[in-house]
Design a protein that fits this description.
The complex is a heterodimer. Chain A has nine helices and no strands. By secondary structure, chain A is an all-alpha fold. Chain A has one domain. In chain A, α6 packs antiparallel against α8. The radius of gyration of chain A is 19 Å and the shape is globular. By secondary structure, chain B is an alpha+beta fold. Chain B has one domain: Sulfite Oxidase, Chain A, domain 2, CATH 3.90.420.10. Chain B has nine helices and twelve strands. In chain B, the strands form two sheets. In chain B, strands 3, 4, 7, 8, 9, 11 and 12 form a seven-stranded mixed beta sheet that branches. In chain B, strands 2-1-10-5-6 form a five-stranded mixed beta sheet. The chains are: A mainly alpha, B alpha+beta. At the A-B interface, α2, α3, α4 and α5 of A face loops of B.
Chain lengths: 210, 267
């Protein structure tokens, strides 16, 4: 049995719900650490960064699912909704820590969103993902139709790209980490444009599919 | 005398210093990495013994000074200052050190000199941030001579009466309390007197965001974040923001240095 087959067989028995359990558990645990002074002397900034980074990491993970299936036949599609929703959960937490604990006032929040481009695009990414989070359920897929739903969920692409740029834009100097994330996001988006030749038996010679 | 004039009022304002733990675990010292916890994690590798400071430029007595020689005979004082980072957080730090003016008198500033330039040590083998080149090193900073001579301006060698923690810029660093923290250059190995405005690291990297003066000013925003308010480190998860004070609260002492200057232009 190939590795891909083994993973695909395992995913048939491994449910997706532990992703929520671990995700929300981790979110709460980090908050608890902040509350108890275990995230350093500036827990607000620490939480903001930790939640934001986890959101980006999970969003990148959702981008991996399709190319992984295309290029290796490993199918993790079953987990993508949980990864995406959990990413949105951390993004929401990131936003709430920033708005409620960091800025603490509606006027500051609106001024920052309007006046600071890196916050504008981070907020735009958040807003773009709201309809996707709301429609991440089977009922919505039925209501929108598979095609319409897929079209709507292409919004993840600009949203994740904006998120990665937001990270690059907010740092000082040229640390490697945010550029690695931006590079990964660009690569994962670009690989979707690469035509994959299916085996001749399943497609006419020269036919290009994704 | 200067202690009576500046240190005591700082105490009288009821400034509650941050703990040594807070002061030494939340730092920007990019030579050791860009994370706030990186300096505390890695700075122990900094080699500070022996420490010599090169004094050059427009001075009467240039040379390589052992740290102890540069400081010998000078009055060390405690100064409790607000410390305001350009990232909009702040602390209160009880520094120990000497007035920079006293050191300048010792090395003999020549009449044509108008600026003081400083340089931070570079020890690539001990400094992971230097190896990964997050910004150009050595880190350089500078002050106008009248700013450098101001009695509030300190060369600090300790905190809470203890030797300066390495992550805070051991063995000797600048403290200019009315300017954003990045002006207060750490681990100084060179002091140069010059008649030209010296280059400064953050200004070189991004002149739109970081000016030469970088005085704390709630009315002039950094392009990426507001400077109108700040958060005191150590207040926990629900700590309130507080309004940032002009010149970080030292306007009575230093505003006259900038009389007639447009502080929006000279940010």
């Amino acid at each position: 049995m190939t590795l891909a087959q083994r993973i695909n067989r395992a995913q048939r028995v491994l449910p997706a719900w532990p992703i929520y359990l671990i995700g929300f558990g981790w979110m709460g645990w980090l908050f608890w650490l902040g509350l108890n002074g275990d995230l350093g002397p500036e827990p607000i900034n620490a939480l903001e960064r930790r939640y934001g980074l986890l959101a980006l990491q999970l969003l990148v993970a959702t981008l991996v699912v399709t190319p992984l299936r295309t290029w290796t036949n490993i199918s993790l599609l079953k987990y993508r909704r949980a990864l995406g929703l959990m990413a949105f959960g951390f993004l929401m937490a990131h936003f709430l820590v920033w708005a409620l604990l960091d800025l603490q006032s509606l006027s500051r929040i609106s001024v920052e969103i309007v006046r600071r481009p890196y916050i504008t695009i981070g907020f735009a990414a958040f807003v773009l993902l709201i309809p996707l989070a709301v429609t991440s359920n089977n009922a919505s897929i039925r209501r929108l139709g598979a095609l319409g739903w897929r079209k709507l969920h292409k919004l993840t692409y600009p949203a994740i790209l904006l998120g990665a740029v937001h990270f690059v834009w907010l740092v000082k100097g040229y640390p490697l980490e945010p550029f690695l994330y931006l590079g990964a996001v660009i690569a994962l988006l670009a690989i979707r444009l690469v035509p994959k030749r299916r085996p001749a038996a399943r497609a006419p010679a020269g036919a290009v599919t994704r | 005398a200067a202690l009576a004039a500046t240190g005591a009022p700082a105490m009288a304002q009821g400034l509650e210093p941050n703990t040594l733990e807070q002061i030494s675990t939340y730092n920007n010292y990019y030579e050791f990495g860009v994370g706030k916890e990186d300096p505390a994690a890695y700075a122990s590798a900094l080699d500070i013994d022996p420490w010599t400071i090169r004094v050059d430029g427009m001075v009467d007595r240039p040379g390589e000074y052992a740290l102890a020689d540069l400081l010998s005979g000078l009055q060390s004082e405690e100064r409790i200052y607000r410390f305001r980072c350009v990232e909009a957080w702040s602390m209160v730090v009880p520094w120990n050190g000497v007035e920079l003016a006293d050191v300048l008198d010792k090395i003999g500033v020549q009449s044509g000199a108008r600026y003081v330039a400083f340089e931070t040590v570079v020890q690539p083998e001990n400094m992971p941030g230097v190896r990964s080149r997050v910004i150009p090193f050595p880190y350089v900073e500078g002050l106008r001579l009248d700013e450098a001579r101001h009695p509030l301006t300190l060369l600090a060698t300790g905190i809470y009466g203890q030797p300066m923690p390495k992550q805070n810029g051991a063995p000797i660093r600048l403290v200019v309390p009315w300017k954003y923290g990045f002006k207060s250059i750490k681990s100084i190995v060179r002091i140069t007197l010059t008649d030209q405005q010296p280059p400064t690291t953050w200004n070189r990297l991004n002149s739109r965001e970081y000016g030469f003066y970088s005085n704390v000013n709630p009315e002039v925003d950094h392009p990426r974040w507001s400077q109108a308010s700040e958060r005191r480190i150590g207040g926990g998860l629900f700590s309130r923001r507080q309004d940032t004070l002009m010149f970080n609260g030292y306007g009575d002492e230093v505003a006259s240095l900038y009389a007639g200057m447009d502080l929006r232009e000279n940010y």
